[in-house]
Amino acid sequence: MYQFDLFHFYRFLLSTVVCVYCVVHTTVFVWRWSGYGASGSTTMTLARRYALVLLLRARFRRFLYELSVLGGLCGALWLLLYLH
């Protein structure tokens, strides 16, 4: 039989709120950043183009390595939480 645990409910509610906040905050940031490139401001246009060039110059193998390290760390965290 299932027993209600206030801590698990709080943890679930907190993680849901934080996830929604991060998604909304990231979406607003990207929306505003894309708007700066469309404006006539030379400084913001140059900054946007510079950031785009930096992203395009990133090495694919280096990115995959960093992504695999991040995945390994997330897996270790999940394992520790599961064993806890």
Layout of strands and helices, then pairs:
Elements: H1 6-38, H2 42-56, H3 60-83
Oligomer: single chain
* Low-confidence runs: none
Which series of helices and strands comes N to C? HHH
Number of strands: 0
**β content, as a range?**
under 5%
Question: What is the arithmetic mean of pLDDT?
Answer: 85
Alpha-carbon distance between the termini? 22 Å
Largest sheet: none
Shape designation? flat
Give me the number of helical elements. Answer: 3
- Helical amount: over 70%
The chain-level structural class is mainly alpha
**Radius of gyration, taken over Cα atoms and rounded to an integer in Å:** 20 Å
Task: Describe the overall structure.
The chain starts with 5 loop residues before the first helix and ends with a helix. The protein has 84 residues and is mainly α. The radius of gyration is 20 Å and the shape is flat. Helix 1 packs across helix 2 (42-56). The longest helix is centred in the N-terminal third of the chain and has 33 residues, at 6-38. It is built from three helices and no strands. The model has no long low-confidence stretch (mean pLDDT 85).
